[in-house]
Design goal:
The complex is a heterodimer of chains A (571) and B (371). Chain A starts with a helix and ends with a helix. Chain A is globular. Helices cover 75% and strands 0% of the residues of chain A. In chain A, helix 17 crosses helix 27. Chain B is of the alpha+beta class. Helix content of chain B is 22%, strand content 36%. Chain B has 8 helices and 21 strands. In chain B, the strands form 4 sheets. Chain B has a 6-stranded mixed beta sheet with strand order 7-8-9-3-10-11, with helices on both faces. In chain B, strands 2-1-4-5-6 form a 5-stranded antiparallel beta sheet, covered by helices on one side. Chain B is globular. The two termini of chain B are 35 Å apart. Classes of the chains: A mainly alpha (571), B alpha+beta (371). Chains A and B meet through helix 1, helix 3, helix 23 and helix 24 of A and strand 2, strand 7 and helix 4 of B.
Amino acid sequence: MIGVGRLLTKRRDELIMRPDETTGLTRRVALIFGFGLLCLLVIVPCLLVLIETFFSTPRDPIRLTLDHYVDFFTQVDSYLIVGRTILFSVFTTLVAGTTGFLFAWLAVRTNIPGAKFMVIAITLPYLIPASFGAISWALLMDPAGGLIHQWLGIVFPADAFNIYSFSGLVFVEALCSFPLAFTFFYASLASTDPVLEEASTAAGASVWETFRRVTIPRMLPNALSILLLLFILGLESFDVAWFLGYPANSKMISVEILLLTRLTDQPDPGAAAIYGLFILFVVLISVQLYRRRVVRDRRLIVTKGKLYRHLPFDIGWLRWVACIGFYLLIVLGGALPLLVILFNSLDIPLESLSREVSPRFYNYQWVLNNEESLQALVNTVLIGVGAATIAIGVGCPMALLFLKTKQRLRQAIDYLTFLPFALPASLFALALLLAFEGSAIDGTVWLLLIGFCLKVVPFSVRNIQGVLLQIDQNLEVASMAAGGGAWTTVRRIVLPLASPGLLASWLLLLTVFIRQFSMPLLLATPDSPVMSNLVFREWVAGNTGHVAVCGVVVVCVSLPLTVLARWLNRQ
Amino acid sequence: MIRIDALRKILKTPDRDWPLLSDINLTIPTGSFFTLLGSSASGKTTLLRVLAGLDSHDAGEISIADQLVSSPKRGVCLPTHQRDIGLVFQSSALWPTMSVYDNIAYPLTTGRSKVQSKNIQQEVLRVTELVGLMVHLKAAVGMLSGEQRYKVALARALIAKPALLLLDDPLGQLDPFLREHVRNELKNTQRKTQTTTLYIADDKAEALSMSDYVAVMNGGRVEMTGSPQDVYGRPNSALVAQSLGLCNFISGTVKQKIDTQHGIVQTQWGAVTVEMESLPSLNKKVTLMVRPESLIRVDGTNPNIPLATEALRIRGRILSSMYFGERQETDVLAGLQQIRFRHTPFNAREGRDITLALRNDRCWAIADQAP
């Protein structure tokens, strides 16, 4: 029986299966239904986009054609757009990922001053959606009077720093992605046992040598997953690409999809679908490469067992440099954009800070008195609340069901629930536009609700699975041994235990929708206005003050939701 | 009565099938305290999970209180919540969202043991008194000590008066001092309730001190079942002997048969009377099982101790000695074999010559079997 012990560990998932979980017609039907629904949510949008690439443009008679592919591969413009998007995503990933990892490591493992406050401080830039981050930097670095542009102009040549350049785009996108990278790396580092690093220092290695030879290799699987996520976010990035890239004629795929479908008199969904398909192709290859790499490297991960206080590494005077560097990033990514939108909403020019200028509230009055802006606010909240509720309501039973499935099916589910992270919001939006074109819900808030549900249900399933996995399985088993059936166990044991996590997930989904920019922009119409449409329209019209008020509203709504979600997650 | 007949469980992998449980046949008499003892991965927890209905099995039958609860052949598989069992985990598995009272009362509020709410309180009070739980019943379970948590879990398992109480090493998370105290309490509770109990243990002292019956498991098989005295004093294999504590194995040859179970065996250190399940024919090799406490020093320091077997004398040299307070354990090199003996403390100096003899008049042996 040598080796069975190891097998027991290896195949634990199968061994802990209860007989009544694998059998039973009701359970099987529910499982097939749940799995089918998941496939519908994830695979159908991809198929719709794929099919659309073979159809002629709406202005021509409907026929099957390869014209879109021919156009895509023969036009220089498409290569430029694709190449620029991939390069943009790669550089953003490298900059945000490296910075996030470095500062997370400094916060978790070293004696950097105020390490605990760093986790709180990162909430500030996290609160600023990428769209408002891009708008703020567009204002700060405006060649015609932007505050930072003026300051830099004192020391450097006038055109040394151009926010509308490729490096400018990468800089702003990396600033927006940095909080996410830091948070993920921080969580990952905090949950891994420092024992290997301590063994390295005990063996005589310096702090930096330990970082290079022990920390980085063992963090590689987690780091790859975080970098992959950043890469995908970069690919689907719309906000920075639209507000900073498009004015400089640096078009990216997400912007091109919008231009081809919405901002044109002659929409060409087939051409847009090719771009969507390309992103899907790149994402699938990356996910596959990542999974192969991670399976190989999982052995490196040592999850924390006994909790004990780790003595941080002393990095000497560099800790002060690191501390200043971190808070500089917080200022650039959070405080400055927040100040910009706040001052603009109050109609106070930033460059006149030294002078006494009274705030004016007419931008706020516009939001409160304008019927359309109020409608957009209400729609945004209603759709956010509705979609988050549906996602949790549908996701919870699905997650419960999937956790009790066999290993092979669970791998498929794992893959399916991972894909929506990878599929760009614009792709989902495109699929919906194609599916519901001309139907009764086309152009209504219902389409937006469906779209957001499609995007977040698999995400919610994955999130709830994480919440449920944290519940000691013995608590469920104890209920069953005490005579509680499956429904009683779920109702009286699982749901009360999972409720803080579920509520946190709900809040998170709501926040994600409020901050979402590209999908509502593609799906909403003037008849169904939401916040992002309003921002888009007012920005195009040059009403910076109105845009800024929208930003303040988004931050004010996101702040309590984020704080509450984080607090609930810690419970 | 609990019956397990020809139970088998196989883990199928792409490479091969791994037998997790092989031909388990057990009968647990009603009201007895039955312990499964074995090293890790011996299959005892898997067997408990199969009994509880938390795991499936491939063949065999399980009956609890004369009710067939599982039989793949007959297509019977009662889900956990319909089996008349109580279960206590090592981790206690108390529900943090409920108070102590709600945790204990839970089985009476749901499923097979549901009772009218007016009767629940008195049942909770009865069972808390039974297990000796002294804690405010409205307290949150997060405030409880390890012992209190264990008692709440035990009360919860006992409140519905189950036909079978399954205890998955419930004392495992208690510290050693508390563990001994709680062990006695558990045994007393079981005696009072006369609940048929299956206890999973990896601590032989717990198994021997609490049980009416002990089954030693290894590699998914039950190696031996019997009373604690039998499995300790009359093990059927070297493996079982070692599972229950240190044992010296001395080879010998049958020189004389007294009856089918008794005879005289000649060893390198002299002759000794042995008892076996079935004595082999003359000149066949057997293995004597000599527990460290069965040996006694006879090198002149205690000449008055009566010795039953005059012939056997193990002469050797002290290799090392470990002091445990109330006792001392000394390793002696006798010829090429190392012998461990347990004794009251004395100055067992390394290198000193020593002579040992058997304390009892006979010795248990098995057919020749290398340990």
